[in-house]
Structures
1.
Amino acid sequence: WAAYTTQGELRVIDMETGASTLVGAFPGGAEVDALAFPIGGGDIPWLNENPTSGTIPADGGEQVANVTFDAGVVTQPGTYNGTLQVMSNDPENGKIAILVTMNVNAPPTFGKLEGYVYSLGYCDGEMIPLKGAEVVIEGAIGGTWTVETDATGKYAFWLDEANSPFSVDVTYDGNEAGHMEGVIIVGQQTTTQDFHLRLLQPCVSAEPVRMDAWLLSGSSETQVLALTNEGAVDTPFAIREISGTVSTKAGFSAPAGNSSPLSGVTLEAPVTPSQSTTTGECLVAITVGSDPEQSALRATLDELGYPWVEIDSVLEARNAGAVVIMDHSPATPNLPGTDLQTWMEDGFGYIEQGDWPQYFPDTFSAAASGTPLDIVVMDPSHPIMRGLPASWTGLGFWAYDWFQDAVGYLTNATYPNLAKAGYFGSLNDRAISYVEVGDDGRGVYLGLNVQGSMAGDNEKLLFDNALRWAGHCAVEDVPWLTEDPVEGTLAADSGLDVDVTFTALPTMTLGTYTATLMIDTDDPIVGQQAVTAVLHIVDEFLPPVPEFVATTEVVGTPTRFTNLSFAGIPPAEYTWNFGDGSSQLVVSTIDDVYHTYDRFGTFTVTLKACNGLFPCVSVSHPVVVLPTGTIYLPIVTKK
């Protein structure tokens, strides 16, 4: 080792000559805390040499060394390799390497136990080989052996058949343990025992993903929402309601152009969500802006059912009655940090989606950019984290911006008036942090792009949680919708039926009402399941009236069937029988369908319509399919 003024160097020193060979340099003379050296060799326990040193006479002298291979010191049959190094003062061949191999055959009563260990992954849908899984083998008359799987998930071990039957236990972090009893080993044969370990995670699904109820005013209907957990562990679940849009109607009829008993009355188009049609008590003030991210922000608020107004000052937010301000860095103008601090100290909420120091110049951005004195660990039980997977929780806090790297730390030590500070949910370029100011004011920093990252279900859930928490918004209740149970535990490998009751309250007008049931669980991939609930309030029920027309085609060309039915109230489900012995086609829409015939002729096609409230109604028509090729007609002449 030699130290210099401008840099440090690591060198290997020849103990006889004193000459040094450079291994590497450390520019600037930096202090090295640790060095690691790869080493190999060492004594080979199954190999012995005698003598191990001596003198070889000059002029053709020789020295015989006896090399002994000892299979008694190894525990397993197989091939063992090593290297003998002969070192001397020979200037040309001072080091001679001799490869040595010992092949150990299995005793006649020994057989090989081998296999692979896999993880079944999320929802038991994968086959992932596990490297480093621990395999413990125990014999019937004594002896325990432990081996680990290699990079391919494979393990192998030779055992004496006299110790059969064997038990095998396999463990790997994050997975269920594997166990097998009664493994029989036969001498000179291979016994294969694979293990498929289940991931210790829930796997939740909800069916159906859309529920429609058609009701007369003052009536109700209960439907079943099936929750299923195909994972290996239990999970809590909670159902919350998010109101959607309302489309009022004077009456119902079939789509325009179709014959209908209600001719002259047409369906109105659904109302597009906006500030005037969404419902809820949590008014969000968003800063004025026309960039694409601001447009996506407004669309996300509409989708989640939050009323919003645009503002260009904190005073406008106060005058509008907003409870939370949503801000984004490209928006103009920049809201003054002093006004925001007062806003939050008065108990209101603030969510920032851009440059943290730009919008918190007085209260937050002055935090030191060096190592914080205290990094607060996020509590996964915080309301903002409700329903999100475990991978989004438990990280320390630091401010992050979509366009920059770390922009500063925020700690309790730096700002004692902050009740909490935390950072969570770091996935690529997404980061969420939260603070509480004073007694009631709450601020949330969303370091993500609304237009891009907000597209995922987890991002939308977190966005919704942040709005509810920052704005002190109560969990919204949809008055015409109830669920039983609304929360509980979904056991592993089981299902649970939730009764969802739709009620057409007498105070509600005729029309279509939508809502979303958000099912929050500990599923690590999809922390929530969204189910659309639609209530149609009508003044009467009507039977469907089926009708259709068909094109005339040749064999092998699809025939188009145009559905001209009146759907009825509620809308019917349609069954097509194409008259050629093929399987019936069942559809729930009035769209055109196609069918290809494999022979020509005239076929009787039947369309059946059923809406569950009236007897099914059918209509049949002949459909002609022409042959292919050229038809030659005789020439008839008249004298």
Note: The helical segments are 292-304, 314-320, 337-345, 356-359, 457-470.
2.
Amino acid sequence: MDVNFYQNAPSACGVYIMKDNENNVIYVGKAKNIKKRLVSYFNGAENRYQISYLLKKIKNIEYILTNSEKEALILENNLIKQYSPRYNIQLKDDKNYLCIKIDKKKDFPKIELVRKIDDKDALYFGPYPSSKKIREIIYSLQKIFPLRHCSDRSFQKRTKPCLYYHMNQCIAPCIDRDNKKEKYKKILDDVILFLEGRSTKKIINILTKEMWAASKREDFEKAAFIRDTINQIDELVKKQGVQGTNLKSIDVIGFLDGPDYVNISLLFVRGGKLLNKKDFSLRKSLDLENTLSEFIISYYQKNVILPEEIIIDIDLDDKSSIETYLKDLKKINVKIKKPYDSQTRQLISIAKLNASSFTPQSTNGLLMLKNIFHLTKEPERIECYDATHLYGKKNACVMVVYENGNFVKHNYRIFNVEEGFDDYKALYTALKRRFNHKEWQFPDILLVDGGKGQLNVTKKVIDELKIKDIFIASIAKDEKNSIFVLNRKNPIVLKSDNPGLKILIKLREEAHRFANVHLKRRLKKYFVE
């Protein structure tokens, strides 16, 4: 495409949609001034690898004008969700971290452990890095603060106290509910203050006074129990790692700007405590600022806790639009700020250090696969196929998709093949049907679970359909994870710590997992029939 095409672009606020020769959407962006943004991208593009590479792919650009930056941001986000363009960032669709939930709508809420943030009226605390750590925290909280442990159903049916009441770990609100409501509320408020990091010293002072009072009354058993409780609080605070006096909920974004990728380290700070961090490596969008804006929108629109502040050491032009969008989405005010005091500057420094200290497996692995298979560029899309069957009947073949270092689950497919038990036939039929879908983006690497037999079946389909520019390989389930490719007698054997091999194994295991999910569904239906 002619690099001067942007001369006809509108000088207005809106969204631009880039398409390739096959009319596939490959990039979606937004701008206050579309023409100005495109000029900044493509002037001198030959000196920037990602821009010059994208230029070769673009056949057409469409524009949608909007009345405001906010409308442009929302439209861009919706179009990215709809088309999943390969040059926009794609966050991995993995499990959320664990959080503590307290549902204040209930008269007697309990401390719950959850992954989904799906109740806007409930309180959430976290995220926490592992189930082990959060369970230790909940266990300690339940020993310190005598809230109920039982399920809602059990609580409604209970007519007498359970064992936790006799262990002084529950005030038994299941009996005499009216008289215990205020007491339970006070305990719950203390738990909330403690989780927010606002009342640790206050609680310890109150407990210390109660301990000495019990000792003067010669109630040594109670005094010893309170002493142990104080020690548990001290231990719990140590586990959470106090970092500062700023008690706001803060997320801190540190980044390392590479030539083609951006490393991001996200720190979670709650109540002055650094709870956890999460690392990301993203294929760079057209520029660093746009990549970071896309990251913030993509991450926080999911079921995650939205903090009071997001600290990032860069000026984002669309900062106010992102703040408004997140406020409308989550009904919570959030401010995006640059570091403003010694604590936030220290946290940014830690986040940047973390972003520069890890080399993501996906990035290294894709480059390694390029070199192992002698490809012209890093593979952007890999498809993996696994044939399966149910007791020799109801053959099927599954397809999983891996794009830019992430699994794209909404592109997974199942191809059912009912006739007889034949893995080769199932694979052959599935590949034929898959490549009949010309609208689906073709992979750079097509991987099959198996050996030379599966590889030859794949080659047969590729040859019959006269498909080019797809590298095919198979990976065997042997001790060496042997990789078979065309025009090579012996398999490729890589070291177990090779990043490229790790990606291929991960693909095979994901295909196997998806096949098992499908089998369980069919098995249930099979027995019903």
Note: Residues 268 and 276 are 5 Å apart (CA to CA).
3.
Amino acid sequence: MIVVATTEDELAGICNRLRVLGVRSVDVVAPSDARRVVLASVEDAAGAAGLVVSLRAEGVMAVTRPDGGAALEAWYRDTRPVSFGERLSVCLAWSEHDRRQLPGLIELGPGGFGSGHHPTTSQIIEELAGRVVGGERVLDVGCGSGILGLCALQLGAAGVVAADIELDAVEAARRNAYINGMGGRLEATLDPLGRIEGPFDIVLANIARAGVVELARELVAHVSPGGWLAVGGISPSQCSQVVDFLHPLTEVSHRTSGAWSTVVLARA
């Protein structure tokens, strides 16, 4: 089985393209007013994987899906939308779950780390939901799918620079900004941190302890007076050590969920 995320306007073209590629059976799910999810039956896993590669090369949001059993149950669980309070929700574009009533919906296509389910991502999103007041300039270091920057924009930030060392991540962030109507407010770049002009009101770095320590001086330098930095992907036992590397910023908040922690630091 393959799943294609599309829109009502593009639905007929997608179905026709699938038939040209040899798919004989398709079903359509409408999880929201704007989103259409096409379920296409394919005889074998290898054929499904090859079809997904072909479709993605054409710019189509396509993924493989299990046909049944425990794997399908896990798929439904892992593609459920995630809500953060009353202002923000995140959902994979190909999810079959209904999302008509979700507040502040961000949809994500394939590519890049970050869907909102992992604690390292959700902790920083929760900080954004509680701290963004509107109009901020945001830097997302190690942007992955672009989820953090997109959430900041949905909450009212003015603009985002999303940086990563992986081309796949930069392209994913750029695509995700486009499908959420935010392409003009998010700049995705491969530029190293030292070449990105700051400062920023908010700096986000969900890049684990090693990444934070390596980039500590540059991360601190990019935080504007009165601004704040959130670092994630670290263990609870690493928090105090990471904070020491980020002097003169001072810790103002931290979150822990199981083996993962996020620390927020501010410049006076």
Note: The chain has three domains: 2-77, 81-108, 119-266.
4.
Amino acid sequence: MHQLLQRQIEKFLPPEYLENKEFNEFIHAVNRTYQSFEKEHKITARAFEVSDKENMEANASLQLEIVNREASINNLKEAIHIIKDKQHSIEEEDVLVLSNFVKNELAKRRNAESVFSSIINNLKSGILLENEKQKVLYCNSQFSCLFKLDEEKETLQGNNFIPRLLHISKLFVHPETFLKRVEQIMINKQDISSETLEMKDGRILERSYATIYHNGEFKGHFWNYWDITEKKKAELEIIRQKRFFDEVLNNIPADIAVFDKDHTYLFLNPSAIKNETTREWIIGKTDFDYCTSKGISQEIALKRRKIFEETIQAKKEIQFVDEHPHQLGSKFVLRKFFPHFENNDLKFVIGYGIDITTVKKVELKLEDAMNKLKKTNEELEQFAYVASHDLQEPLRMVSSFLSLLEKKYSKDLDEKAMSYINFAVDGSKRMRQIILDLLEFSRVGRMGDHEMEDLDLNKIVEDVIKLQMQQIMDTGAKINFGVLPQIKNFRIPLTQIIQNLVSNALKYSKEKVSPILDISVKDKGLEWEFAFKDNGIGINPKYFDKIFVIFQRLHNKNTYSGTGIGLSVVKKTIENLGGEIWVESEEGIGTVFFFTLPKNIPSYI
């Protein structure tokens, strides 16, 4: 891809634009145009270079010819004057010297004419030299070629050129106009340059004309024609390219500006300033001029100038946000400066701006909502803590008095009364456990109490196994894990997650079947993926969502103990760490709990 187009795409276009198929086709079409334009530009530049060089050489040769001719004439006049001078006695030696002098002068002239003829004949422009009576003194091969003349240049020389004009005129789009213009030029005898002529075969010629005078006396006409078809094509392509890029820039829904090194505007698109008069006025001016004309504070101009100078000094883009206060609310514009250097020389700076008012307002609302949510969460945590603490005290009192009642009056109460007391004691114990679980759940997510650290997962799993060793030994369980990676995270929350999942695998095992738990971790690029696979009783897919809801149980307390808070705590902890959890299971086969944790923990945690 063309380097200039590649740089523009990287600076101005968001990556998601390139995923659009139609937009990609458009970019490829632009790229082909860039390459074609560059090729034709090189051809045109070369044509200009060759044409300028040829004209300079031709002019130099003409000047040399004129100088030599004048010198020869002057020398010959001097010689003739000596011969005619009656008072001067001519000796044989003088005549010999004069003869040799004349021969040398003629030789010089023939040599100059030869050089002149060689240069003119090799020019790529068509040259025609006529005397005052329009007889051809000289024309080169390119002239005959341009106008498709059958006669050789030698045949043309010495003949009147007027009869050939009629033949030549028929080659042009407007023959009569061509003839009238030639007649007008010769009558006026006024030098002209760069007249454009259109030919019927599509070629475009450029014509120049110069009168030839010697000692103030008119001596002839000098015509110069050259084919500028390719040059014109290149110019038209440049115009087309400019029109195309103007269309693109003028229709981009973003502010586009180009500045010189002094922060003066060179270009602005309609998105930057909609009023065309103002847009034309600001070219060649600065933000300070604009602020003055609008009678507004120079503060924003000072800010932009400071950032403009910083981006030039840093030689890289700088991004900032402009805030424009309005009665109905501020407008926010995200701006960027892109300095363009060539060979360490600053050529221009591109300014880019896009209205982010809606996004900014959403961000401000979100920030406000987050602050309110944070405050609400803190209040809820405090409420949960106070509530759980206050609820535990009456429960302890109920439990204590029931125990005293059972101890003091057990002999006086029948079996039914004792069962009621047992139910009440058991209920108060379970209520106390629920309150403790609720308190624990309310504390999940308070990462501010912990610090990030490098963790060895092997060590954490080993510590969890030690804590569960009694249950592992009772059930004959096997916990398998290979070499687990080291990660950066919070130790206590991650330990709680692993402990809950290990405990679940041991608890929900098949009867008379030793539990087997396989723990693995995969590197998924930006995150770690954990898997806890067991051979337990499994879960019906219709309950996959229910198991992560607080206090939701799939079994009664007599079969499997607990309050149903474990997996809800795991889910909340993982989500607070920026990850997610899901389950795959089949009843009677086993269950796999998957969860992910990002390698870079989000900053809001």
Note: The radius of gyration is 49 Å.
